[in-house]
Amino acid sequence: MYNRKIDKIKGFLELSIIPPHVYFPILILYFFIFILTEGIPSNVLGRFLIVFLFGLINSMSITFFNNVSDYEEDKIKGKRNLVTEEILSIDVGIYLSMFLYLIGLVFSVVLSCSIDYFIIVPYVVFSFFTWWYSDRFFLGNFFGFRLKENYLTELITYLVTFPCFSLSGWLIMTDLDMKVFLIVFLFTTLVISFMLLKDIKDLSSDKKSGISSFAVVYDISTLLKTSSYLNIVFYFGLIYLGLRNYLSWGVFFILLPLAFFLKEVYYPLRSKKWKISMEMRGIVKKYYLNIYFTFLILILGLIVDNFLIFRF
């Protein structure tokens, strides 16, 4: 399967950026929100490249190390990749993970020295927690557990790392103010909603691996209901910011995924009292995909908005 060099490169990409970590597209969304609210800077392409690289490097480091650390769970799931096929050894995987994290740290230090010295502070917190979240080799051994192995520490990780990552990203673009904090809060609700869905999706393998995720500990219907309500808070929160002119009209493109969510996910699940069946699993899959659809639609709306502002 990985006999050719090109196959090994493809295998590395599958471990690191396919699919990208959920934090990455949100950072790109932040950039378009920034230029709509603050105006298009003279060096817009250079600024976008910096934001893109910051997101890409960290998405790759988180995703790659998580896949290396999850080799046992992935074998249980029957996943085939460079690690589970033992083409890439665990030791080499750890060294590559350290290298990716080091690149992210150096990049953040450079940004702190050239843009805003405070960028490095939330970034270090973000790096520490994301490493410990996956790490079964060093911090996992030292503390006796990985953060992902218990639903409370998993929740704490998301509640710490996403705001820290967001604040570092925003500081690359502009100073922090109340509007930024409101936007980060709303996207945090979406990320927690996504986390609950991910736990539901991974329920079977988490049980076999002994991971006490939300889906293992709590009833699935409760998680679906909580995730849906958080999703609704996110949608209507962005609409509210648009109505109050905190965000421009491009944000109203969110009405498309909102309508899809209500019609294809929320009402069908509620009508079945949030109980999972074979039919409901298809609905949950739609819900999962709709989150990524939301990112794409928002980016599209903000691009269209920016284009019209630039043209007229």
TrEMBL record:
Its main location: membrane. Keywords: Membrane, Transmembrane, Transmembrane helix. InterPro entries: UbiA_prenyltransferase. GO terms for molecular function: transferase activity, transferring alkyl or aryl (other than methyl) groups. It is a multi-pass membrane protein. The keyword Membrane applies. GO terms for cellular component: plasma membrane. The chain crosses the membrane at residues 12-36, 48-66, 87-111, 117-134, 155-173, 179-197, 217-240, 246-266, 287-310. It is found in: Cell membrane. This is 4-hydroxybenzoate polyprenyltransferase family prenyltransferase UbiA. The lineage of its organism: Archaea, Methanobacteriati, Methanobacteriota, Methanonatronarchaeia, Methanonatronarchaeales.
